[in-house]
Amino acid sequence: MKPAAIGLGVGAAVGAAVALASRGPTLVEWPGPVRQAFPFVLGGLVGGAAGIKTGVSASLLRAAAGRGRGPITTLTPVVIGAAAAVVVGVGGSVAARRVLGGLAEQGRDLDPVYQQTPADPAVSGSAASAVSIAELGREGARFVNYVTPAEAIREVTGQDPVAEPVRVFVGVDAAATVEQRVGLAMAELRRTGAFDRATLIIQAPAGSGFANSFPVDVLEVLALGDSAAVAIGYGLLPSFLSLNKVQEGARTQQLLLDAIRAELQDRPTGPRLLLYGESLGAEVQQTAIPRGPADLDHYGISAALWVGTPGGERADIFHAECAAESYTVDRPEQLPDPVPTPRPRVWFLEHDGDPVVRFRPLLLLHRPAWLPRDGQRGRNVPEGMTWKPGVTFAAAFVDTMFATHVKPGLFESRGHDYRADLGAVTTMAFDLRADPATSERLEAYLRRTEIERAQRLGEA
């Protein structure tokens, strides 16, 4: 049998087997066309690779036996292949730069409703601020404009605010270097009186600059406005395109924490310090304090909440580092009651079925603990989902692309969407006070506010 025929046969058999194994439940729903195409694409890629390798090997064996000249008989195919690779590579690079440039511009463009300079001097981008509203970028402008109004505090708590909330944001375009951005943030914190508030929450944004307003909303309401929040951007692209920015983001966090520590050393009193990071922001913040509790001690951090941390060796090591004083939950119903003594300082909110949390290179060849052959599985991990070498890795990778399915006001507590959980978990993690009636009003306020914000943005 000719090598080509051998390769074709093996490739077809392997491709068919992989395609068949690729049909099964996944952690999150996929669009119909993706679900239909996945087995064929994966089977084709694996089968094609297996067929080519088998065919080439068979050809080499025939040549060694004196019955052929091997898979490459002249230099012409090599030259043609190399030239094609160069052309495709150059063309792909140019196209990629254009796409990334377009996404970055989208990150800079402000929503029409938030293009005006904020009237509130307690937020960045106002007339009194060291940074303009344009320098905040789209996500920063949203963050500062989402500051909680006094009437909302009264509505939820039944009490008058005791102070005006402070929100500081410095966009990546506000300065050329990390040091300069941190300097601007510190100037803003001093200008707004943030260090005189009872609580200061330090948030590491995601790659696009997105700083989740939800935990800050909860803090501002339950602290009766006596709070401040600060975030510094390190990029403008979505998180999956910002993995190369983790170290820059971590360095930003380190310098900010160092500066805040130095500032508070010269003050007789200071705010209670909190850390918050979500998705890539959680990875950035954890990278900035690799020693976990020891670094929290160094910076005087009272509590940290990390949500939906991307899976991998770094996350596993950090979890282990914090094991002695951390608590991990999938949903609010798992929050401890009563709270252990001493109170956990580190809180992880991670859905059992969040692909961003579960995906990691080890899935390629190793069965994960969350997919046991038998035994209890976590919430939203399908019973019919099984581990298959290579296949589960590929399926989980596709899962990450559809992990966040957000509908304004509809909080599903599923995949990488944590909106349904953040009210209760933030309240517990940051040791805020809220009786059942207040918590119920807070949840209603968060849902209604999200819908209102989406309507202003034209997304509802």
Features:
460 residues; alpha/beta; 7-stranded parallel β-sheet
How is this fold's topology laid out?
Blueprint: H1 3-21, H2 32-64, H3 76-108, H4 137-145, H5 150-157, E1 166-170, H6 178-191, E2 199-204, H7 213-222, E3 227-232, H8 246-265, E4 272-278, H9 280-288, H10 293-299, E5 301-307, H11 313-321, E6 326-329, E7 346-349, H12 355-358, H13 391-401, H14 419-429, H15 436-457
Parallel strand pairs: 1-3, 2-3, 2-4, 4-5, 5-7, 6-7
Helix pairs in contact: 1-2, 5-15, 6-8, 7-14, 8-9
Report on this model:
The chain has 460 residues and is of the alpha/beta class. The chain has 15 helices and seven strands. The protein has helices at residues 3-21, 32-64, 76-108, 137-145, 150-157, 178-191, 213-222, 246-265, 280-288, 293-299, 313-321, 355-358, 391-401, 419-429, 436-457, and strands spanning 166-170, 199-204, 227-232, 272-278, 301-307, 326-329, 346-349. It has a seven-stranded parallel beta sheet with strand order 1-3-2-4-5-7-6, with helices on both faces. Helix 7 links the parallel strand 2 and strand 3 (227-232). The longest helix has 33 residues, at 32-64.
